[in-house]
Amino acid sequence: MTDPIRARRSSWKKGSEKNLKRPLAWAGIIVFALLRLLCLLQPVRIYDAPDKSGHPYTIEGRVSDRYCKNDKYIIEIHKVRILTNPADKNKSQMKTEYLRGAVCYLKTDTAGDSLPFIGQAVRLRGKLYPFERARNPGQFDLAEYRAVHGFDISLMEAEIIDRGRNYNPYAEMLERVQWKAAEIFKENLPEEDAGVMTAMLLGDKSSLDPDLKDLYKRAGIAHVLSISGLHVSIVGLGLYRLLIKLRLKRAAAFAVSLVFVLSYAQMTGGTASVIRSSIMLAAFMTAEIIGRSYDILSAMSLSMI
Known about the structure:
The protein is α+β, with helices and mostly antiparallel strands. Helix content is 47%, strand content 19%.
């Protein structure tokens, strides 16, 4: 018995592939041109506060991420509010300042079980520093890199002095799944292999051996350590095909696979390559469900938009 979805898709292919106009591709080009023009007219805003450099300050914000790097816990917070400098006696003249985000390096004696949850409001005290600017042409500009990602300042030797009750349970669950998977790799694999697996499958390069990372770079295959479209395709499309084999309806299989892929994308950091491949995979599965052909250029343009 002929599958009606495949028959409809086959008939659509025969009549339309010759005259495929790809409107999404043109829309993507227009959006890209407009964004490029906007970047030229309005450069990245970089926060600079030399008068605050190294001074003790108290800030408030909401936790967006947390991780461990070089045996030091780091939390990233957004919607930052800089409170009155406790060292300043004339507090009446101080004004509360609002920033986009801050990268907070916690004190070395901070325990992992005392870290705040994702989405939780926190108040921290530490030494405020602006990010370093590039001093030579072509040098890596840390301040511009952080500004693009929405961070204006860094807080060194930070101490958590207060936290709210509410947090994001979904994001917290994904974070704990990632940490648990990393622990399984460390317990069952050699140290170097565990670092590679954590980077390739979980998007966390903090435990990757620096010498091994440099070796991958010099060999020109450093891209295999990043979460890419290949990972998303294997995870999402493999689950989609498996659910169909288990007699689940295509729409239900699509919904389950899409939720799983989006959760995986968020767990691994939500990088540009992961978001792009997730959108393209969703377009592919949607085309199968409605009986239309999949055009890779249109799907790529949709993800760019």
